[in-house]
Design a protein that fits this description.
globular, 40% helix, 17% strand
Length: 231
Amino acid sequence: MQYLKTLAVDLFQLLFPNLCVACGQSLVKSERHLCLNCLYDLPYTDFHLFPDNQVARQFWARFPCDYATAMFYFRKGGKVQQILHGLKYRGKAELGIVLGEMLATRMLKGPYPVFDLILAIPLHRRKERLRGYNQSQCIAEGLGAVLGIPVLKGVLVKSKATSSQTRKGRFDRFENLKQAFAVVNSSLLENKCVLLVDDVITTGATIEACAQVLMAAGVKSIAVAAIAYAA
């Protein structure tokens, strides 16, 4: 019976192969979403080892940011773009969890402050309903599972739908996001150290808009973690 089950799985994999989201090559049984070649070849930043890094500097003058990191450099047309495209547009919610676990594992190897809870950058409910999930929430769940920190959902919300941020500069992005986010039940956040999670950081306008709302709700400090940083 076990032989037949294995044979059926192998046949299914032959007809409908699991492919690496970065390079499109077939995955072996031990690989999840990314092949080993890509895992070794991806443009890691190592920001988790250096508190004074490019992401952290981007936020220092904008809000009290205790810690900031991103796992990969984002390059247009590169493998990281393929990974994020698969996460956001090809229904690969589990990929977000895997990426969150990878990010957390790297964070554990460097200095980082104590976090009380993790929050994901929210999607507007209409967009989340269409996509079926929030990719940043999936990343946050992976982070929380490895770091052992609770992940709260529905506390930070996107209450206003906004136009696409693509092709907008930093100022226009921030203007586009004004009053787009809100906190529900601020008592859960008062005097807490919050890790704010996003998929990719470009101008940082989305992070900044959320941080301002969180600071107004009484959080003690804010840290930032993302999968990619568009330098």
